[in-house]
Amino acid sequence: xxxxxxxxxxxxxxxxxxxxxxxxxxxxxxxxxxxxxxxxxxxxxxxxxxxxxxxxxxxxxxxxxxxxxxxxxxxxxxxxxxxxxxxxxxxxxxxxxxxxxxxxxxxxxxxxxxxxxxxxxxxxxxxxxxxxxxxxxxxxxxxxxxxxxxxxxxxxxxxxxxxxxxxxxxxxxxxxxxxxxxxxxxxxxxxxxxxxxxxxxxxxxxxxxxxxxxxxxxxxxxxxxxxxxxxxxxxxxxxxxxxxxxxxxxx
Length: 251
What we know:
This protein has 6 helices and 10 strands, in the order βαβαββαβααβββαββ. The chain is an alpha/beta fold. It has one domain: TIM Barrel, CATH 3.20.20.30. α1 crosses α2. The chain is globular. The two termini are 25 Å apart. The relative contact order is 0.19.
């Protein structure tokens, strides 16, 4: 029976809300100051949610909300040590090949500080507003997640990527330059389904995080397991991945 690998625990800050003062056009200056403060005070991780609108339980959907990967690119240029991530990106929001290209760019701008956060998706209202197809069956969303990660890793690691899956396809696709981190940036899967999401984590993720639920206008400190391949399938000792943005609910 496989043994659990020891993982070093580090602490990070997750940004759940974009409400800073009265002028939404100044919100990036506030998030930049927050990330730089976290870096200066020894935190190892800074993450933002990847949504188009604010999620239930944190704030109103009409609140100002910045797109996550745009923010990560900007933060990568104004920080030097802290790791950066979305927590987490839904597999449905962008073509996985495009997401692979975007993530490679952030890893290059940050000089190798990206953690690639991805999940199966859950926020139905957001899907409807932005005209994304929401598969009702969790198993389909998890299948898309697993397939997307395989495609992304192929794009990151092969000179030309050819991938024909059930949900996603690329043909002889070029992604250059590759990410700084080798063989690829660490992959963090977010979700709450104990069976299907854990299976996806075991099969595809290179790191696992357990995060405390975030609240409006708060800095959420998260304990992050950073050891590569720290996920195991040891019976009766499973860890449930949980996103501090609203998690998926596959079973």
